[in-house]
Amino acid sequence: MTLKRFATAYDFVIAAEEYLDLHSAELRIHYRVAAANAVREQQPEDQFYAANIEDGQVCGIAVCTTPWKGLLGGIWGAHLGALVDAMFEFYREMPGIMGPPAEAIAFANLWCDRSGRHPAEGISEVWYAMDSLTMPERADGHMVMATEEHAALVARWLEAFWHEAGLFDAVDAAVHAQRAIDRGLFHLWWVDHEPVAMIGHSGPIGKLVSVGPVYTEPKHRRKGDGSNLVAHLSRRFLERGNLRCGLGADRDNPHSQKIYQRMGYELVAEMEEIRFIGP
To answer: What is the average pLDDT across 115-129?
Structure first.
């Protein structure tokens, strides 16, 4: 096995594209981050991209774009220590790591030994993917694309979602909402002339569309609005014929997982976030 660093996101995506496409559901955030930066005219220099190469084939990847946590995917094995050393030299203040549980925990232990910081439990997610949809029981309402007039609402619901999910490194909600609305990446579920739920998506990255975040206003929950919104948006992409849908759920929320599974979403990965605190 060989640890290979890449100077830019573009170089990384070109070298690892086959692996990223094959594992797009298990690497949906990693791929999205790399792909978004790969198309930038000016390639950022404050980003880390690496792959674990075995017999000429990519078998693991690592991504870090400051100031966010690092992302691990695939297999690193004996090269995990070398990866920690390389990422530590690149970004000593990295706030955490997310990846498959065993790899993330091993990485965090090595990182904290090297840095003198301490590991702290972050979010634990399960990631799903879908090829075929079973529609849930129909709920009143319909899906509409969010527009400029909904920007404040989307920002407010994003902040509420991040707070509930324990996402401590989220970006500015108003900025994120505006950029996503400009790209048509948020939809709302309307009932009786008012929005009650919201969903975002990534747009196609390779042959996968990441669906989420999903947020239903608390007073409207347990009525089927959120699940209908997920189903309607998923169906829109599946009907294109060459796309899969992927989403993430809190590992400790079996209710939402059962809803997604009934629709046809199948488990593809478990992801563990570990934050680095201290000195």
So the answer is: 95
Examine the pLDDT at 51 and tell me if it is beyond 70: yes
- Asked if 35 contacts 13 with a C-beta cutoff of 8 angstroms, the reply is yes
- Asked whether 266 and 129 are in contact (CB, 8 A), the reply is yes
Other CB atoms within 10 Å distance of the CB of residue 124: 17
Predicted TM-score (pTM) of this structure = 0.92
pLDDT class of 170 with cuts at 50, 70, 90: low
Q: Report the alpha-carbon distance of residue 172 to residue 33 in Å, rounded.
A: 17
Which is nearest to 231 in space by CA: 196, 192, 267, 262?
A: 262
d(CA 233, CA 238) in angstroms, rounded, equals 9
- pLDDT per residue as tens digits for the range 72-120: 999 999 999 999 999 999 999 999 999 999 999 999 999 999 999 999 9
Beta carbons within 10 angstroms of residue 149's beta carbon: 8
- Could you tell me the two tokens for 50? 């690496």
The values of phi and psi at residue 39, to 5°, are -90, 0
